[in-house]
Write a structure and sequence with these properties.
This protein is of the alpha/beta class. The chain contains 15 helices and 15 strands. The strands form 3 sheets. Strands 4-10-9-8-7-5-6 form a 7-stranded mixed beta sheet, with helices on both faces. Helix 1 packs antiparallel against helix 2 and helix 10 packs parallel to helix 15. The protein is globular and about 75 Å long. It starts with 8 loop residues before the first strand and ends with a helix. The protein binds pyridoxal-5'-phosphate. InterPro entries: Cys/Met-Metab_PyrdxlP-dep_enz, Cys_met_metab_PP, PyrdxlP-dep_Trfase, PyrdxlP-dep_Trfase_major, PyrdxlP-dep_Trfase_small.
Length: 479
């Protein structure tokens, strides 16, 4: 099976390098892989087969068992492993340090997050975040996008600040084009102790996008590769939870670390809480440190959860395609409705959302091209999250009356469950101002565009006509 179109040239430390995946082992031709630290002799002698995204999701880490022939990995519950002699084991000693199911899942994740070489799984997305921040050591400075996931904001400002003396700067990174205010503020924010840039795109719940290519360009300009300042270049971490590895491949654009709450799209069935980091081969030292912390802190997922998440990941490409098609249809249907003020969906209009197109993974682009899914109006599927603003029930309605109308709408839905979280096969709807983002003070919420009429949909993979009917009926019950 050869399907090499989905891994184009990847950036390695500011230079361009060719990246390939063979049975899930990502190799960078100019990278530090294949036992050739200078990469000069790493051109493979035999042609490598490069499988497409869906093929890797199904096969990598899930190879048939050589002893039994089982095509699905067995769940390995043992916490310890018999050694043949002291220190002579089969690769497993104790289940916190390594477990066949967790290792298999990590292999799958490293393969589907294009450009990845290793994945490190944790007991939740939040434990993953905590471990990354811990890895920075004392008194580090973190630059983060301002509408970052609330739990990340909380960990940086209320935990790491007091336990590690972590300093932080939160910035609007929506426009960092050359000469923009955003670019100026970002450059101004760099300090000698800035060790990490934390980015989420699309953001939650207003689905704002960050131009990852431009961000890497700015880093290259500020910390030119091969210059003395290259050693103090902060790491760029992208929380890719909302886009999923199907729609966005930040490592191919030059990011250093990708984070996922696997709880969302990757597991996809709302029955596992888990997180993971995926890193490219060029970041071997960072990977090793994070792997050390995974074991030392011990916030590891269970064998059963790892097995479930790996099973979920096998259908990620199928689900993400349907999530995207449904979400785009719903976004367009909502745009036609009088009582909806604004619809936010990253793929709604290519000219407005050029960043979405730039951030789109090569495999998603390939699919969109092959299926002719780029609309004449420039719209295209981009993950399954849609946000929209309900009009006030009357011109002079108060905050509370507006919130009441939103709540009535949400309660009247039949198929969309009124619930937090996202990324499962079933559709969910919520009011961020009173639910996921309630802890943010009202003034800041307003500044971030999280008003009382804002509704966030996690569009599932049900029939889109049924979902649209559900939303229309819900609106009729309020207005
Ligand atoms: C973007 C994002 N990152 C990280 C997390 C944290 O993940 P978890 O809930 O698995 O701890 C979440 C949770 O909602 C999230 O939405």
């Amino acid at each position: 099976m050869t399907c090499g179109q989905d891994l184009p040239n990847a950036r390695v430390n500011g230079s361009t390098t060719s990246s390939r995946t063979t049975n899930g082992v990502s190799e960078h031709i100019n990278g530090h892989t294949n036992g050739h630290p200078n990469g000069k002799h790493s051109t493979p002698k035999v042609p490598h087969l490069i499988d497409g995204f869906g093929t890797r999701a199904i096969h990598v880490g899930s190879e048939p068992n050589p002893e039994t022939g089982a095509v699905i990995p067995a769940i390995s519950l043992s916490t310890t492993y018999k050694q043949d002699g002291v220190g002579n084991h089969k690769g497993y000693e104790y289940s916190r340090s390594g477990n066949p199911n967790r290792n298999a899942l990590e292999k799958t994740l490293a393969s589907i997050e294009a450009g990845g070489s290793e994945a490190i799984a944790f007991a939740s997305g939040s434990a993953t975040t905590a471990t990354v921040i811990q890895s920075l050591g004392p008194s580090a400075h973190v630059i983060s996008v301002n509408d970052v996931y609330g739990g990340t904001f909380r960990y940086i400002t209320r935990v790491a600040s007091s336990t590690q003396g972590v300093e932080s700067t939160f910035l609007d990174l929506g426009d960092i084009s050359p000469g923009s205010e955003g670019e100026r503020k970002l450059i101004q924010a760099f300090r000698s102790n800035t060790k990490l840039i934390w980015v989420e795109t699309p953001t939650n719940p207003t689905l704002r996008l960050i131009d990852l290519t431009r961000l890497v360009e700015i880093l290259d300009q500020q910390f030119p590769p091969h210059s003395p300042s290259a050693a103090s270049r902060p790491l760029l971490l992208v929380d890719n939870t909302f886009a999923s590895p199907f729609y966005s491949s930040p490592l191919l654009l030059g990011a250093d670390i990708v984070l996922h709450s696997l709880t969302k799209y990757i597991n996809g069935h709302s029955d596992v809480v888990m997180g993971a980091l995926i890193l490219p081969a060029r970041n071997a030292a960072v990977t090793e440190h994070l792997r050390f912390l995974q074991n030392a802190s011990g916030a590891v997922p269970s064998a059963y959860d790892s097995w479930l998440a790996q099973r979920g990941a096998k259908t990620l490409h199928l689900r993400m395609k349907q999530h995207g098609i449904n979400a785009l249809r719903i976004a367009k249907a909502l745009q036609q409705l009088d009582n909806v003020e604004e619809v936010i969906y990253p793929g709604l209009n290519k000219s407005k959302s050029a960043i979405a197109w730039k951030n789109l993974s090569p495999h998603a682009k390939k699919w969109i091209d092959a299926e002719g899914l780029l609309g004449a109006d420039g719209s295209f599927p981009f993950s399954g999250m849609v946000s929209f603003r309900l009009r006030k029930p009357s011109h002079d309605a108060s905050y509370d009356e507006h919130a009441e109308a939103t709540s009535k709408f949400l309660q009247s839905l039949r198929l969309f469950s009124l619930a937090e979280s996202l990324g499962g096969v079933e559709s969910l709807a919520e009011a961020p101002a009173r639910m996921t983002h309630a802890s943010i003070p009202p003034k800041e919420r307003d500044e971030l565009g999280i008003g009382e009429g804002l509704v966030r949909l996690s569009v599932g993979v049900e029939e889109s006509d049924d979902l649209i009917d559900d939303l229309k009926r819900g609106l009729e019950s309020v207005f």
